[in-house]
Amino acid sequence: MDGARRRIIQTSAAAAIGVALALLCLPLGVYPKLACAVLDAGCPADGEPRGRLPQVTRLTAVEVAQSGSYVALGDSYSSGEGVYFLDKEPVNDGADRCHRATGSYVPLVAQAYRFGGGTAFYACSGATSRQLLSGQYGQQPQISRVGPDASLVTLSIGGNDAGFTKVLTGCIVKLPWSAACVDQDAAVARRIEQLRPSMLQVLGELRARAPNARIIVLGYPRPFPKEPVEDVDNLTAEDQRWLNGVTRRLNDVVGSVAAEFDRAIAAFGGPGSVEYVDAYEAFTGHEVGRPQPYLNGLHVDMEELKVDARSYHPTGEGYRRFADLITKQIAAGPGRPMNNFQLATP
């Protein structure tokens, strides 16, 4: 009778263990340890103590971020375009084409936290969401730099999909009395809306490659004062308000896609997260035209008669502000419990 009862208990326990593994998304290697502890089955010959269950611990947001490698992707607002001219030599392979700079927020984030797998910096100036997947300048795609060991991914993306550089150029080179700036509204709105499926594809690829990682998406700062009163770089107050509005709309789309994706992860109890950092108000008091701007204004190379790439990109102070936003987000987490777990053998 005792033997039959024991077999019934073992069978029930085995079923319970299987359900727990499925719900918690624990590694398959956990099962033998639980089987040994609960069922007295499959124990190694040299034998760990029987009857003691391994401890399953839910990781904090910071523990998740630091558990593997930090991979920094994105466009010029992540690569450091605004301060690239200050570097004496490339920070890594391809940095001379992608304008990755030591003054970007990425090295500052890497210094603020200790990442178990180190840091990989591959953001590239000019990147669109599609180029994040396909590559630029003969370099391998940024997405390919992400592997299963990645625990934190940061990126800024969408500005080039919206054609922001072209839009801004059209606003600056217009005739002073022209409405050529705001007349771009319909085309810009269409490009911003088309960003949604591309963003979803990028996030899906990142999740497939690094299913346990926290993905932090950084928005863009408002470039001009909330209530501009003076012309700046041939941009009227109306032009500045419109460009601020374009930035807000772009951020809203990026933020909503990130939020929707994270809700899906949480609904299925999956590990990792997608988090959005709204940087729209981050440069308040330091916009273009202010005494101490966090964005470069218009810079023209008079020898080549062309606009310098650092124009309307963050200054060193701007990138430090970005670093502050991201380090705080790493500490704060996604605003919900992480579904990443660690198994400790007793």
Automatic annotation (TrEMBL):
GO biological process, one term: triglyceride catabolic process
The keyword Nucleotide-binding is annotated on this UniProt entry: no
Keywords: Disulfide bond, Hydrolase, Membrane, Transmembrane, Transmembrane helix
InterPro entries named among the record's database cross-references: SEST-like, SGNH_hydro, SGNH_hydro_sf, TAT_signal
PROSITE patterns xref list: TAT
Annotated disulfide bonds: 98-124, 171-181
Active site: 76 (nucleophile), 313
Transmembrane segments: 12-31
An MF annotation (GO) of this entry: triacylglycerol lipase activity
Occurrences of domain SGNH hydrolase-type esterase (ranges): 72-321
Protein name: SGNH/GDSL hydrolase family protein
Source organism (scientific name): Nonomuraea zeae
